[in-house]
From TrEMBL:
<feature type="domain" description="GFO/IDH/MocA-like oxidoreductase">
    <location>
        <begin position="129"/>
        <end position="251"/>
    </location>
</feature>
<dbReference type="InterPro" id="IPR036291">
    <property type="entry name" value="NAD(P)-bd_dom_sf"/>
</dbReference>
<protein>
    <submittedName>
        <fullName>Gfo/Idh/MocA family oxidoreductase</fullName>
    </submittedName>
</protein>
<dbReference type="InterPro" id="IPR000683">
    <property type="entry name" value="Gfo/Idh/MocA-like_OxRdtase_N"/>
</dbReference>
<dbReference type="GO" id="GO:0000166">
    <property type="term" value="F:nucleotide binding"/>
</dbReference>
<dbReference type="InterPro" id="IPR051317">
    <property type="entry name" value="Gfo/Idh/MocA_oxidoreduct"/>
</dbReference>
<dbReference type="InterPro" id="IPR055170">
    <property type="entry name" value="GFO_IDH_MocA-like_dom"/>
</dbReference>
<dbReference type="Pfam" id="PF22725">
    <property type="entry name" value="GFO_IDH_MocA_C3"/>
</dbReference>
<feature type="domain" description="Gfo/Idh/MocA-like oxidoreductase N-terminal">
    <location>
        <begin position="2"/>
        <end position="119"/>
    </location>
</feature>
<dbReference type="Pfam" id="PF01408">
    <property type="entry name" value="GFO_IDH_MocA"/>
</dbReference>
Length: 340
């Protein structure tokens, strides 16, 4: 049995706690939030008795082998380093760190402790996205040469996550990070990125539109486009739509979770909708199912003694892309993420 402590009992943590409950090999034995009311509400709802308002106290008491960090980014470095000092395996929510320097220190701290670090980078684990990854990796359309990975919506994310309206940065750091990571999962690492950003919604501080052009080392060119200012019907939140052109055919993941592959004169189309788990609700069920899938991946990796696909070290490359996108937009030039 893997005993886990979870830190941060806010908006998204409920999904993580529900996901852990469904895994028979896992028990969440302790909770921490510096907000006593949230801590008690979540502790009562999930019947978790050991509760702490101070993470350092929780680490000192121990009694668990892994920690799940579900706080917002400003606390991640301190919490990951405390967990490494306590000799624990770690899962940490995205965005993993505020700066690449912080992220590198965090990865090194957990590696020094000889433990596993996974970033909760869950969009590439959404089952419709996974269906695309598997089809592509299985050679369904030959060698890809073009991709578009697109997330466009006007869904009100600010009511559940008010901090998203307040930061100097918004869509690339919060949402684009997932879409860039999907592009990496599909086409591999990136040599250059060119980005433009815009703020359309006057009630928020950061950018809510970003359009990015990526040159992958594999030779693929991809467009990653994200918007929270796109009022269209049907509203597709939180679907990532994907188009890939390959030497042997084309693949599309269209709105409504429909995967279509065209090759050799034929068309094959199937519904790849995510499951609606008993604790999930639409339209979030796609993201919620991916939480359960990434958590299972984490436990399987621990058991097998292998690195998770979305390990801390792997995530350094996704974070570098985020930083490179902001730099590209600010300096109106293409940027090699390797220069950061
Ligand atoms: P939130 O503000 O609703 O909740 C965070 C909680 O952490 C709060 O209750 C706060 O009191 C607590 N907290 C902060 N620092 C703490 C500390 N040092 N010690 C103890 N408690 C602390 O935030 P949220 O919307 O739940 O987001 C949390 C993280 O999840 C963010 O990084 C966000 O980007 C991420 N998120 C991920 C997804 C996804 O699909 N992967 C979706 C939504 C949010
Ligand atoms: O915080 C974001 C995330 O990670 O997925 C969707 C979201 O909740 C709002 O953009």
């Amino acid at each position: 049995m893997l005993k886990i402590a979870l830190i941060g009992c806010g908006f998204f943590a409920q999904n993580q706690l529900n996901g852990w409950k469904d895994l028979e090999s896992v028990e969440v034995v302790a909770l921490c939030d510096r907000d006593r009311n949230r801590l008690d509400a979540v502790g009562d709802a999930f019947r978790i008795a050991r509760r702490f308002t101070d993470a350092a106290e929780m680490f000192a008491e121990g009694g668990f082998g892994a920690v799940d960090i579900a706080t917002t980014v400003s606390s991640h470095r301190a919490l990951v380093e405390m967990a490494a000092d306590a000799g624990l395996h770690v899962i940490c929510q995205k965005p993993f760190a505020q700066t690449l320097t912080d992220a590198r220190h965090m990865v090194e701290a957990v590696e020094r402790a000889g433990k596993t670090l996974m970033v909760h980078e869950n969009f590439r684990w959404q089952s419709p996205v996974r269906a695309v990854i598997e089809a592509l990796r299985g050679g369904a359309i030959g060698t890809p040469f073009f991709g578009r990975v697109s997330f466009r919506s006007a869904y009100d994310v600010f009511s559940g996550q008010p901090y998203l309206a307040e930061g100097e940065r918004f869509i690339i750091e919060d949402l684009g990070i997932h879409i860039l990571d999907i592009s990496r999962a599909l086409f591999g690492d990136v040599d250059r990125i060119t980005a433009t950003t815009r703020r359309v919604n006057p009630r928020i501080r950061g950018e809510d539109v970003a359009t990015m052009l990526l040159s992958h080392a594999s030779g693929v060119t991809s467009v990653v486009d994200c918007s929270y200012a796109t009022r269209r019907m049907p509203e597709t939140f939180p679907e990532t739509l994907i188009e890939i052109d390959g030497t042997g055919g084309v693949l599309r993941l269209d709105a409504g979770y429909r995967l279509t592959i065209q090759k050799g004169g034929g068309t094959e189309s199937r519904d790849v909708s995510p499951q609606l788990l008993p604790w999930a609700e639409k339209p979030w069920h796609n993201i919620q199912e991916s939480v359960a899938i990434i958590q299972r991946h984490f436990t399987e990796c621990l058991r097998a003694g292998i690195q998770p696909e979305t390990s801390g070290r792997d995530n350094l490359r996704t974070l570098a892309l985020v930083e490179a996108a902001y730099r590209s937009a600010a300096e109106a030039r293409s940027v090699d993420p390797g220069e950061l």
